[in-house]
């Protein structure tokens, strides 16, 4: 079995521990670099993913790997749920999310807590929907994380996952590869104090079982009606499934 891709090659810490450390290190510049490196397209992709839940009208949503909360904030605007709970393993990212929640006066709708995506501290069948944006490729045990998300979903509840994928069409594949391998790490190093994080980004995307491979994994853990929707020639993908 191949060694999992991790942020810090010389570290003996687990992938989970390394990912937490990495996001703690880059939390202060994360939002800026996210929008800058994607040229703002990440905002459009988030909206497209959230609209997958429009017809479901979920009242109670769990946002896994919530980070600084951008996906959840967009969900509040579009879906108007009664409650969103965000969990993340990075205290640094959650600190930013809490500041944004307070600034926007959304404490009554959106709350965040430190949590492990593979050991969610919620009851079975507690949420109408579970969302994840750019988080599943960071899971230490992807199958375990997906299984636990299925567990906390109510019957007929839906999961929506937004994640980077690998374009396979010329010349998008070549341009994307160059940008991710050379431009992204260089800009990340310039603005962030943790250059390893932006080297890890393209490596984690390359190692991630995207497309049909991922929907097959979703089916394996028990999700039904799984779908895969590539965006921007496959640079990003939306995955959905129901319980």
Kindly describe this structure:
The protein has 243 residues and is α/β, with parallel strands linked by helices. It has eight helices and seven strands. The protein is globular, with a radius of gyration of 17 Å. The model has no long low-confidence stretch (mean pLDDT 91).
Do you know the CATH topology? Rossmann fold
How many separate helices? 8
Approximately how much beta-strand content do the residues carry?
Answer: 15-25%
- Averaged pLDDT, please? 91
Q: Using the 3D structure, state the CATH architecture.
A: 3-Layer(aba) Sandwich
Query: How many runs of DSSP E, i.e. beta strands?
Result: 7
Distance between the termini: 30 Å
Number of domains: 1
Strands of the widest sheet, in order across it, are 3-2-1-4-5-7-6
Summary tags:
seven-stranded mixed sheet; 243 residues; Rossmann fold; 21% strand; single chain; alpha/beta; 46% helix
Brief sketch in words of this structure:
By secondary structure, the chain is α/β, with parallel strands linked by helices. It has helices spanning 15-37, 41-50, 70-79, 91-104, 142-152, 172-191, 195-207, 212-221, and strands at residues 60-64, 83-88, 110-114, 127-133, 153-164, 224-231, 236-242.
């Amino acid at each position: 079995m191949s060694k999992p891709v991790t942020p810090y090659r010389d570290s003996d810490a687990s992938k989970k521990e390394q990912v937490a450390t990495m996001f703690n290190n880059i939390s202060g510049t994360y939002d800026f670099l996210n929008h800058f490196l994607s040229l703002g397209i990440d905002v459009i992709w988030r909206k497209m993913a959230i609209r997958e839940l429009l017809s479901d009208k979920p009242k109670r949503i769990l946002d896994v790997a919530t980070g600084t909360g951008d996906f959840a904030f967009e969900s509040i605007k579009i879906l108007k749920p009664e409650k969103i709970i965000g969990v993340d393993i990075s205290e640094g990212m959650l600190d930013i999310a809490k500041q944004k929640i307070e600034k926007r006066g959304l404490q009554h709708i959106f709350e965040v807590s430190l949590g492990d995506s593979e050991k969610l501290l919620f009851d079975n069948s507690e949420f109408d929907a579970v969302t994840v944006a750019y988080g599943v490729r960071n899971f230490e045990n992807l199958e375990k994380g997906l299984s636990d998300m299925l567990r906390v979903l109510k019957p007929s509840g839906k999961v929506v996952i937004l994640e980077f994928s690998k374009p396979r069409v010329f010349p998008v594949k070549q341009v994307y590869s160059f940008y991710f391998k050379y431009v992204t790490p260089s800009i990340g190093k310039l603005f962030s104090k943790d250059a390893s994080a932006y080297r890890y980004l393209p490596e984690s995307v390359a190692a991630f079982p995207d497309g049909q491979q991922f929907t097959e994994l979703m089916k394996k853990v028990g999700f039904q009606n799984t779908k895969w929707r590539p965006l921007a020639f496959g640079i990003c993908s939306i995955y959905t499934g129901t319980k």
